[in-house]
Structures are given as C-alpha cells and as structure tokens.
Write a structure and sequence with these properties.
Layout: H1 2-31, E1 43-49, E2 56-63, E3 70-77, E4 83-86, E5 90-94, E6 99-111, E7 114-126
Antiparallel strand pairs: 1-2, 2-5, 3-4, 3-6, 6-7
Length: 127
C-alpha cells in the first residue's frame, strides 16, 4: 500500500514538473515572437518593358513604410532560372526569349525586434 502511495506521489511530481517546464518554454517563445503583421503596409511591383531593348524588363518594388520598418533585402526570382538579390527597390532584367514568366519577389523588412519576410508574384509577358 505504501508503494502505491509513493508511486502516485511520484507520478504527480512528474506531471507537475512537466507542466512547469512546458509553461516556461511557451512563455519564452511568446516573448521572442516578432509582430510581422504589416498592417498599413502597401506593396506593389511594377514591371515595365523597355521601349528600345527587346526582352529588357524594368522592375520596381513599391511600398509604403510603416513605423520602425525598413527594407533590408529584395530577392528577385525572374521566373527564367535567374535571380538577383538587392537592398534597393529597382532592378533591370534581360529575358532571353519571349514567353510567360512568373517573377517571385521575396522581401525582408527590418523591424524593431528582428526581421519580417514575405513574397509576392508578378506575371510577366515578353512578346
């Protein structure tokens, strides 16, 4: 009988100890979380075909900054196997041939507590 009481007490101690360990780790994860909800941030991508050079596309990353948020990096995946990383808002790309391309633009903003990442896709048609 004494053994059963000791076993019950041991199980209760293990359960309570596990609860406090999990509670502590969840609090730390919540404290380290970064608010990446962009709120009023407006993002758009312009892609303008050059009027002189066939296949040359001029890209512009447009955004309206939100408090304590700065553009850190833009990765331009042009949809033809080529990519380029910039820390600015504009880039030019020469497409080798006509066709339809889906350009994927990944962007990173620096915020007070870290970084926020997102992406958008722009449909490109080269005549």
């Amino acid at each position: 009988m004494v053994e059963i009481i000791i076993m019950k007490n041991f199980i209760i101690i293990v359960i309570v100890g596990t609860f406090f360990i999990l509670q502590s780790s969840c609090e730390k994860a919540a404290e380290g979380a970064i608010d990446c909800v962009f709120g009023d941030l407006s993002i758009s991508i312009n892609a303008d075909l050059d009027s002189v050079t066939p296949g040359l596309m001029h890209f512009k990353f447009n955004y309206t900054p939100v408090d304590d948020m700065t553009l850190k990096e833009v990765t331009w995946n042009f949809g033809d196997g080529e990519s380029q990383i910039t820390n600015g808002e504009t880039v030019d790309h020469q497409y080798a041939g006509s066709g339809h391309y889906d350009a994927v633009i990944d962007y990173t903003f620096s915020v007070t507590d870290g970084e926020c990442n997102a992406s958008t896709t722009k449909s490109i048609n080269i005549p």
